[in-house]
Amino acid sequence: MASSIMESLFQRSLDDLVKGLRLQMIGESRYLAKVLDEVKKEINSTDAATKVVALQKLTYLHMLQGSDMEWASFHVVQVMTMPKFAYKKIGYLAASQSFHEETDVLVLTTNLLRKDMGSKNEYETGMAIECLSRIANRDLASALTQEIFTMMTSGRTFVRKKATLALLRVFSKYPDAIRVAFKRLVEKMDDPDPQVVSAAVSVLCELTLRDPRSYLPLAPEFYRLLESSTSNWLSIKLVKIFGALTPLEPRLGRKIAGLLCEQMNKTMAKSLLFECIRTVTLGLTDHAGAVKLAVDKLKEIMAQTDPNLKYLGLQALAALMPVHPWAVADNKDTIVQCLNDGDPSIQRQSLVLIMGMISESNVTETVQVLLQYVRSTDPIFCNQLILSILSICSRACYEMISDFPWYVSVLAEIAHIPFCEHGEEVGRQLMDIALRVESVRREVVKVARDLLVDPALLACVPLQGVLCAAAWVAGEYVALAPLGAFELLEALLQPGTRLLPMAIHAVYLQAVLKVFVFIATACYQDSSLGQQNNEHGSSQFLGEGSLEAAMVLIISNVTPLVNSVNMEVQERACNLLGLLQALEKPTNSEDGERWRDEGFGALEALNEVFGIELGPVSVHAQGRVVVPEGLDVEDNLDALGPIGDYDEILLEAGEKRPTSVYREWDAGFVFTQQSNDDPSLADASAALLAQHRHRHENYYLPTDAVSRNYPPPHFSSANTPTTPEAAAPSTSLDSSMLGESSQLWTKPRQTKARRPVVVKLDDEDDMPELSAHAKKKGLKDEFLASAIRDALATDESKQRVDANGLESAHRGHSSRRHRHGQHSTKHPENGSKHDGSGPSQPDKTLVGQRIREEVHEGKKQTSDVSRKEQGRNKYRPSKHEIMVLEDGLSSNSENEREGTFELKENARWKKKQQKQRHSHRQNQHHARSSVPTQADSVPPIPDFLL
Amino acid sequence: MILAALVMNTQGKPRITKFYVPLGVEKQQEAIRTIYSALSQRPEDSCSFVETEDIFGPDTKLVYKHFATLYFIFVIDSSESELGMLDLIQVFVETLDRCFKNVCELDIVYNFNKVHTILDEIVMGGQVVETNSAEVLKAVQDIWKLERVGDLNVPSVRGIGSYRSKS
């Protein structure tokens, strides 16, 4: 006792805690640990006040510092049960802040919440409802559905609106509650208090967005509310609902177009205006008048300086773009200006729009304009711009691009941009273009040469991807080098290359090999030719360098690399030097000459291999390679383990060069052949060797046999025949074009003029890393949706009266069965009695016919109850019959249900509930099984639309 | 719906946090840090919306307003109107101002319970419950009165919040 007094006397209050925290500039964590220790002690106190203050402090720390509060959950419940309002409130706050679905003490709160919801004080009730709407899990929701249901008809607005809102959480945690409370929720749309109406609509809006199809039958209600709505909040939600509904039902769009236009014209609230515009962009895109008005309004809005309006305007335009590109074209000046906005959100939106407007005819101008912006903006946006340019231009095998030399120059420009972080992608595209577009190779090699020659770029980390690609291009297409191969060799061997990562350096060395082979073969041919006519020099190929100079250069620069720590670099350096040894000056002329000829012979062979044209490799190529018989990929290859690491490094470093994939592929074939030809390869060590060769083909010197045996790549030329007329318009690079001719933005795709051949593989997709897959928000819970469909079906009779008859093909078998299950035998008679007086009866004779059929069915059922189930399963009535039958049934069952819930006696309620649950379960079963058919069928069409 | 309501100062210290979607404590703190770093980099005159796909999933947005040393932030998904949320922030701040007479950061720091009460009267379970500042003020003041007295049966507060008509 004494200790608790001491505790409460000297307890740190929340204010003290906050003050203390504010004083702690450093050592905050120590202070917090101390406070938490105190809290842990105090919260066990028997003194209520001490405990409450401790809990309050804990809640505060939880909220601000993320302190764990799981351990205190039981104390939270204890505080929630305290009678004093102020204490209780602290407990409730702690609960709603810290409890989650898995909190084990939730079970303990059920009765507590029920009691507080029944409190005489509306604030206490409100507090309990608020808490429920935060913490409810399935059990809690199912236990308290009844309370919420009752409170929805409470006399106090305060309670009514909160109970209505709490339904959302209850529904999503316990879908069965929909059957109980959905009808009342719909009724709340007619509540005398606008607050409650707003709450009901807000819940319905949330539900509709999750699964619009189920709520189509409520459209007339929403329409009526929107017509009479005076509150912007309410209108916004209603318009949002229509935004979700109209795409499903075009006739609904036609119906509400007038109303939306009226709203757009008269409202002063920008929020409502934007909601209307959004709904137009979502569901009314084929309604010319509405779209026109929306675009006009957007134009007005975009002219203002408010950044919020600008942002939302751009967003709305982006939504319109796919269907109405002219709307975007109309606003293009504003959009281009927005690129220069200081606000990243706005910049990004306008970039999206501009990218959407790009077409073949304006790609040059647009990219030119974007490149100007690239240089003047901050690094983040700059990289977004670059990425957009790269992805849009490379889309679908560069279908936009007809002027490839220009695009290659753009790539080069991008590579030189200081903040550029997309070197890898630029490099990939350079290589890709070099492979695919033969006619532009000379330009690509020139770009590669420029990149390689500049020593300043070597230290630039983001550019290494480009350099890697440039080195490969230079090596592969050395024959096209603008200033000769020797210069390339110098560039590839400059001392700065040692700054490069090892994997890229290895690519450089491979390029050196290729360039050298080219030089050497050219010299050799020259010298053999030169014996006949000396005047033809090799200068046009080799620049001013000679073979000896090249060898000296290589030997002096590559020799140190033999000791490189990187296996790859070391191996390639050794290979290179090994080759050179053969060509060194002969010591004695006779022997040396032969030695030298043999060396040149090897070079010739290499040259032939390197000279083979490489095609692009399909992403699926690897999958098509048949696994050779007897190859056990699962086999333990521990012996090769250490080498495997380098594989990974290589892959990481972007070494996935088409060459490597390609050669690996053909190596696979070699391997197959060998294993077929020579059965002795089954011998373990030979197989290992072959596998090693298979895996590391790059490091093996290609043999002649290899070059003969690989299958030809699949080429299919995608060029369109060029007509002289189509080739006429010459594209101007002037960026002012963008401002001048607005047709540029909307011009339909022209026939491709003078487009060079782009090699395309038959099954090629976009590059996977660039095609962003926009994930659509899926249906969250199919079960909830099905439950709602059922609940709506139960609701029918009311809507019939309200909407002056809703034809609904939607009332499916499930609801009918449900009723049959519930009200066993008497209903068929009721049904046939009632249907004559149903509110909407189209045709008398038809009705008569139906009645007969129904009576028939009724008889069958009454006469033989035991075979009822069986008979129902057999007898599948048409939709019309169901409709008529239900007319009677629903009104009947409705009354009965109504009665159930008006009664406050618990015993009766429970009995009923059990019965209902039972039938729910059955019904669920039916509902589940019938979901696909319902989903497939045409959505219900409200009559008022027709 | 509204996924979260936050108040934080320009130093990145959270003042009020309320998450209406289940989110672990660490995730909450991480979200707060990410939001702060996103907001603090934005220039003064930029728009009030930030897309937050990486924090709260697709189609979510931050709607925020900057008052003196505080950011008021609502995280919303596509079922709320952005401009509507700005109005709601206005309602929230207005109510705070009326409750605390010229509200400043310190008021919020020292009265976190009260601010929660106010917020609860405006947003409930992620849905907007009341948009009229006067209504909110009335409810909040009643609740505070009840809190001060403690016992709901004391004559002075008997009228407050009890049902006038039977339910």
UniProtKB/TrEMBL annotation, chain A:
Residues 36-581 form the Clathrin/coatomer adaptor adaptin-like N-terminal domain. Residues 811-825, 909-928 have a biased composition (Basic residues). SUPFAM superfamilies: ARM repeat (SSF48371). Residues 733-745 have a biased composition (Polar residues). Residues 716-732 have a biased composition (Low complexity). It comes from the Eukaryota. Keywords: Golgi apparatus, Membrane, Protein transport, Repeat, Transport. Residues 703-764, 795-946 are annotated as: Disordered. InterPro entries: AP3_complex_dsu, ARM-like, ARM-type_fold, Clathrin/coatomer_adapt-like_N. It holds the Pfam family Adaptin_N. Its main location: membrane. The keyword Repeat applies. It is found in: Endomembrane system; Golgi apparatus. Adaptor protein complex 3 (AP-3) is a heterotetramer. Belongs to the adaptor complexes large subunit family. PANTHER family: AP-3 COMPLEX SUBUNIT DELTA-1, DELTA ADAPTIN-RELATED. This is AP-3 complex subunit delta. It comes from Sphagnum troendelagicum.
TrEMBL record, chain B:
Keywords: Cytoplasmic vesicle, Golgi apparatus, Membrane, Protein transport, Transport. It holds the Pfam family Clat_adaptor_s. InterPro entries: AP_complex_ssu, AP_mu_sigma_su, APS3, Clathrin_sm-chain_CS, Longin-like_dom_sf. It comes from the Eukaryota. Residues 1-142 form the AP complex mu/sigma subunit domain. Belongs to the adaptor complexes small subunit family. PANTHER family: ADAPTOR COMPLEXES SMALL SUBUNIT FAMILY (PTHR11753). This is AP complex subunit sigma. It comes from Sphagnum troendelagicum.
